[in-house]
Every structure is written in C-alpha cells, then in structure tokens.
Specification:
Elements (H helix, E strand, L loop, with lengths): L3 E7 L3 H15 L2 E7 L1 H9 L6 E4 L3 H8 L5 E8 L1 E6 L9 H6 L5 E4 L5 H16 L3 H8 L1 E4 L13 H7 L5 E5 L3 H4 L5 E5 L8 E7 L5 H8 L1 H9 L3 E2 L7
Parallel strand pairs: 1-2, 1-3, 6-7, 6-8
Antiparallel strand pairs: 3-10, 4-10, 4-11, 5-8, 5-9
Length: 246
C-alpha cells in the first residue's frame, strides 16, 4: 500500500529534493509531500502541533530542540554546506576580494534572517569570525546587513528564483551572503559574480534530520544511504561524513 510521507524541509534543500523524491518513490513506491521554508519557522509549526513525519533542517539545533520536547524520535546529521558571497557584476568589483566587497559602503548587503533561518545564523557567526581578525569589521557588517529573506514577514522569493539572484537582479541589494550549494547555478547568470569565502572565515553548516514518526524513518534512512548522499553531493552539498562532530 502506497504511503504519503509528510515532510517540512529547509528551503536550501529544494534543488536536491526532486531527485531525492524521484529515487525514493522509485525504490519504495511511497510518495513524499514536502513543504519548504526557513527552518526556524518550520520548527515552530511542529512545536505548535503540526503533524509531520520528517523535518529536514539546515542546522542541528532545531531538530535537537524538537527531540528535547518529545516531538522527534531520532536526530541525525545528513549533509553540510558553507557560505559564499554573490555580487552584481561590474567594473567596481575589480581588485576587490570577498571581504572588501562586503565592507564597501557603495554596496547594499543583504542576508537571510537570523533565528528564523539558519542561513542568517551562519552569516552572523561569520561576522563574529571577521570581527576577531578585523576589529570593528564584524560590527560594521551586522549594522549594514539588510535581512531581506527568511523571516516571518519577509517577501516571498518568486518560484524558480534563488534569493541572491532575485534580490540583486531586482535592485533590492547589491551583495548577498548565502549557501555555497547555489554557487554553480548563480555563476550561470552573467549579471552575477560569486566569491568563495576562505575556510578560516567560513562557517560549516550542519544539516540534520528529525524523524518525527515511524513512517518517516524509511525516508531518513534513504537520505542517509549511499544513493541519497550521492544525490545531495550532486546538488552541491557535502556528505554526512564531512559534517560529523570532531
């Protein structure tokens, strides 16, 4: 008998989810009903009583919180990510590196929203790393950052668009800090320039699954399997073994 598995998933997983769903359904015959959004807001919905079988978060904190409140049976890290900088391409970027682009007062800097969206939390962690190496620079970035996506009252990103692409190409910002898993797609847009962030400034994003019901366990196992991990890596994520605690 075909089962439908209800999933809430971090929006940054959207690119990987279609091939994951297709492969899982082909293998098991079961169907995945997924809704994407900022992980912090999704966690709040589960805490408030929404019934789901699996929650795929862009951090470990939200799934662990659900487990502590008795709303998750198991929690396991399943993939990783990091941050990159995307800017509007132009001659003013010449001779600038990723950090000088962020700090340049000519450029409006946009980020996701801390607490509501792990991408924003990771970005603020990076600002702290910058502050340690460059006193006052982290504070400057926190003050100038426009939290334009990932919040409860944020405008919705148009279907089929990436946050960086939409914000920059629509003129709402000049620079955006987001996930490296999007870098390949962003580089296909001739209007954008993507800067890698060095490892000693970057933040390791650890994604985790909260299995909320027994019905969700086969999907969690599939995501953690060799096939699931290969699909995630093809979508720009690093595998589960790269994000395990040291």
């Amino acid at each position: 008998m075909t089962k439908t598995i209800k999933v809430l998933a971090a929006g940054s997983l959207r690119r990987a989810w279609a091939p994951l769903c297709d492969a899982f359904t082909e293998e098991t015959g079961n169907i995945i009903d997924v809704e994407f959004g900022p992980a912090g807001l999704l966690r709040e919905r589960i805490e408030q009583g929404e019934k789901v079988d699996l929650f795929a978060s862009a951090n470990t904190a939200h799934p662990l919180t659900l487990q502590q409140h008795g709303k998750a049976l198991e929690v396991e890290a399943f993939c990783g990510n990091s941050l990159c900088v995307t800017a509007r391409k132009g001659p003013e970027l010449e001779k600038l590196n990723w950090l000088s682009v962020l700090l340049d007062p000519r450029f409006r800097l946009a980020t996701s929203t801390p607490q509501s969206d792990p991408s924003g939390d990771y970005t603020w962690q990076m600002f702290e790393l910058i502050e340690r190496r460059h006193p006052d620079a982290g504070a400057i970035l926190r003050n100038k950052a426009l939290r334009l996506v990932g919040g409860e009252k944020s405008a919705k990103i148009p279907a089929g668009k990436l946050a960086a692409e939409w914000l920059i190409c629509s003129g709402q910002a000049d620079v955006f800090i987001g996930y490296t898993s999007y870098a390949t797609l962003l580089r296909e847009n001739d209007a954008l320039e993507v800067f890698n962030i060095p490892a000693d400034y970057n933040v390791r994003a650890r994604y985790a699954l909260a299995t909320c019901t027994e019905k969700g366990k086969p999907l969690a196992d599939f995501i953690l399997s060799e096939t699931g991990q290969r699909i995630l890596q093809n979508a720009g994520f690093c595998g589960k073994h790269a994000v395990m605690p040291e």
